[in-house]
Amino acid sequence: MARATDTGTTARRLCHLSGGFLRQRRLRRILQLAGYELRLGWPRAGDQVAVWGHAPRARRGEWLASRTGAPLVRIEDAFLRSVHPGRARGGPPIGLLLDERAMHYDPARPSRLERILAEDPLDDTALLNRARGAIARLREADLSKYNAHDPDLSPPPPGYVLVIDQTRDDAAVRIGGSDANTFREMLYHAQADHPGTPIVIKTHPDTASGARAGYFAAQSAETDPDRITLCTAPVSPHALLEGAVAVYTVSSQMGFEAIMAGHRPHVFGQPFYAGWGLSHDARPITRRQRHLTRTQLFAAAMILYPIWYDPCRDRLCTLEQAIDQLDAETRAWREDRRGWHARGMRLWKRGALNRFFGRYRAVRFDQGKRAPKDGRRLMTWAGHAAPGDGAVRVEDGFLRSSGLGAELVAPLSLVCDDLGIYYDPARESRLERLIAARAVLRPDQQTRAETLVAALRSGGVSKYNLQGAALPPLPDGRRILVAGQVEDDASIRAGATGAVRTNHDLLRAARAANPDAVILYKPHPDVEAGLRRGALPPDAAAGLADMVLHHADPVALLPEVQGLWTMTSLLGFEALLRGVPVTTLGAPFYAGWGLTDHRGPALPRRTARPGLAGLAHAALIDYPRYMDPLTGLPCPAEVIAERLRDRVHARGGLGIRLLAKAQGALASQAHLWR
Fold first, then answer.
1. Residue 438 CB contacts under 8 Å (≥ 6 apart), including other chains
2. Does any domain span residue 572?
3. This prediction's pTM
4. How far apart are CA 340 and CA 379, in angstroms?
5. Which residues form the signal peptide (predicted)?
6. What CATH number does residue 538 fall under?
7. Domain edge (last residue) among 276, 298, 314
8. What is the crossing angle of helices 125-141 and 253-260, to 10°?
9. How confident is the model at residue 20 (pLDDT cuts 50, 70, 90)?
10. Which residue segment(s) compose the domain that 219 sits in?
11. What is the pLDDT confidence band of residue 664, given thresholds at 50, 70 and 90?
């Protein structure tokens, strides 16, 4: 099926008789981007008729197509959908399947997916490498079609046979020629094939939520309570597959995921993944004779067959970009589903925090010292945290905003750290652990990190994205940029524990080590704005700095220098991303990994040696959470990089701007606003 986008070409009309299509705005938008126009009513010459899979209401469209002779197009959710099922407040799908031949679960006739599996070469190296990376990514992010898995729940002890239930009279069961007897037969064979082995029956999420009945109920386990367990809890499908010694299914998508997990499932229906030499098929489809690898099966079903949609950028996208978006949305649900108590949060921050973390339950703000007793997690701004308080530390991320935090511009990224906080080397942080884990990257991770870094460089994106003054002519010679900092900043208090703890000391150290270099001093923007401490005493730069660059864009400076000296400034990280050698005299998160000339305090825990891509992946992709200022959705780092490049940012209202001015007047107490 040709895939068109909204490039000005005439859209193909899809006529329908279903009110459901009228209610689903995202579905209509995906179809529009794919080159289709949904219309309610009778088709004209050249039109097609749209129906939703084999749902009961699809009969109206089937009648319309047979009456008029218009070709029928069946539409279904793609194999990655949303956090929750559609019937359980799942939100709109992130991808669709469009098929003019048949639905993938209809074995009576070959679907477009079956044609791809049977006829396409499926031997392109780039395609298969993408498939391998996506398989690993889905497993790492614990993503499935539906993703309301509780990460705190563990599967049963390993060594069980996993039997997968489905919803009663689902189209994939009914159209596939299966019924309740098929499920009884499957359970019988699972018991007979594995005598004495525990049986775990996994219910469908719709059954667990009460939206739809399944084929197995509590009495299934009661027939042999010592051996059969009904798993209704939202345990991760990946975790269940990990502990299984065998997998039995009729036609569930989880059978496909079992193949991706290395199983050869026993299949009692005729789903799309049966018949390719990757499953034990009770009812073989004789026309399927080709033997495929699991990577080829995945490439066809997940890359070549679906249409994927990026809701933040409002465009069709690749599978990888769909995974990025679904991962961000799923992470937000898993971390926020129980709600938060927040302490140590200034009034101006609370709106942004609620937008980030209150999507499912509004954040409760209090200043009390008692631990919450309502199941909510406890968070606190990192600068207000107390040892042993059990709170998750919250701080700004490294791609923050178009404007200063000290001017009360709301952040587009925040980090949550359950171990420590990235700027405090005294204790291990979650970021430190993530950096160590990224010492070795898969090819897809390497590519993603390098692509993101290239986008930051080409777009001139940094933490604050200030539009500084044009650079003046710079002196010739080997230029060293010295990054001034806020001297009462938490990163200085925690990370500058050596001899150099002030901007003046930093300048002296840089000059002493580079007597013949051109020293350029860049004050911190918060200090220049009069919002924070750290201004040099009068004439302090004389004889130490060849030039003080007030209000200059620090990112624009980086291509003009041959080195950067800093205590703990994030500008050092941004310099590394742009290939500038960095000398650290404090202990920032990016020091101690072999990527900087580290002259600060010893960092004995940091023994791993990640490359620059590994450092960037951990700090920019794994660690922060991002929120798109246009859609309000959780989003991946790449979306925020584009928003900051394009300076798309929702600034605070009049009250916030007045508060920012008041803060500037109280700059001598600016640390209170951190």
1. 445, 610, 614, 615, 617, 618, 622
2. yes
3. 0.93
4. 7
5. none
6. 3.40.50
7. 314
8. 110
9. confident
10. 1-314
11. very low
